[in-house]
Amino acid sequence: MQDLSTIKDLLSSRGLRPKHRFGQNFLHDHNAMRTLMRVANVQPTETILEIGPGTGTLTECLLDTGARVVACELDHDLAALLRDRLGTRITLIEADCLQDKHTLHPAIVHALDRNPFRLIANLPYAAATPLIATLLESHPECQGMVITVQREVADRLMAKPDTSDIGPLTITAQLRAAITRVATLNPGCFWPAPEVQSAIVQITPHTPRFESNPTLRTTVETAFQQRRKQLRNSLGPDFPFPTGFDTKRRPETLSIAEWIDLANHAPPT
């Protein structure tokens, strides 16, 4: 397992430094890594998707389990490092993991070939929210996730009604999965140390799966674009609210069941 000195040496040998524009914060704390791997309990028959492998610290741990690893790295320099170190042991995709806000990159889709997989990764902060939502909404072949994310993202994933943390990600995730906060990680677990805490989160899809519902997504996103407004204003006067629904309510007050009821009354998108 790579330690901080090894990570720094791998980068400096190629004249590299962490790139702020890519949100590169390398997880080097061995206790955190062991916790993530213990919870993931990767089996040798599995296919694992890793986003943002960096210098390959987690990648090497995943490979040691015998699993097949599909790794996606946006940074060309780090992709070259991984290619030189790991060669054909991994399926390496050199690209942004998302083609757009709601679509996984086609090269990843092709590599996974619609077969079951899990996401195990120290996620780049900027990619975390749209990637989690996309996998839950559009990829039923994703059997679960064990990931490190910004603590704020973990708070949103697990938020309750009538709290400031609740938002579209909350609704998307809780409709489709059980979410567990495994551990909170201090900035010192990473290099460079971010200005915020992080968390290891386990996401386990519900059985049966909640089917994709574009109308629900549009309704939720429209309402939260103006979260301080009453729903009768944010959704518009022509929205067909359920009989007896209090249209003066604000979006953060609704339960998951109430969002489903709203979407069932909404015009299809």
* CATH uppermost class of the largest domain: Alpha Beta
Shape: elongated
CATH architecture of the largest domain: 3-Layer(aba) Sandwich
What series of H and E elements makes up the topology? Answer: HEHEHEHEEEHEHEHHEEEHHH
List segments where confidence is low: pLDDT < 50 over at least 5 consecutive residues.
none
Strand order of the largest sheet: 4-3-2-7-8-11-9
Helix content: 25-40%
Total strand count, please?
11
Proportion of β residues?
Answer: 15-25%
* Through-space gap between termini: 48 Å
- Total discrete domains: 2
Task: Briefly note the structural class of the backbone.
Answer: alpha/beta
Largest sheet: 7 strands, mixed
Tell me the CATH topology of the largest domain. Rossmann fold
Average pLDDT metric? 95
**Rg over C-alpha atoms, rounded to the nearest angstrom:** 20 Å
List the helices and strands and how they pair.
Elements: H1 4-12, E1 26-27, H2 30-40, E2 47-51, H3 57-64, E3 68-72, H4 76-86, E4 91-93, E5 98-100, E6 103-104, H5 106-112, E7 117-122, H6 125-138, E8 142-150, H7 151-157, H8 168-176, E9 177-185, E10 190-191, E11 198-205, H9 214-225, H10 231-234, H11 256-265
Parallel strand pairs: 2-3, 2-7, 3-4, 7-8
Antiparallel strand pairs: 1-10, 5-6, 8-11, 9-11
Description:
- This protein has 2 domains: 4-205, Vaccinia Virus protein VP39 (Rossmann fold); 214-265, Orthogonal Bundle (Helicase, Ruva Protein, domain 3), CATH 1.10.8.
- It has 11 helices and 11 strands.
- The chain has helices at 4-12, 30-40, 57-64, 76-86, 106-112, 125-138, 151-157, 168-176, 214-225, 231-234, 256-265, and strands at residues 26-27, 47-51, 68-72, 91-93, 98-100, 103-104, 117-122, 142-150, 177-185, 190-191, 198-205.
- The strands form 3 sheets. The chain has a 7-stranded mixed beta sheet with strand order 4-3-2-7-8-11-9, with helices on both faces.
- Helix 6 packs across helix 8 and helix 9 packs across helix 11.
- It starts with a helix and ends with a helix.
- The model has no long low-confidence stretch (mean pLDDT 95).
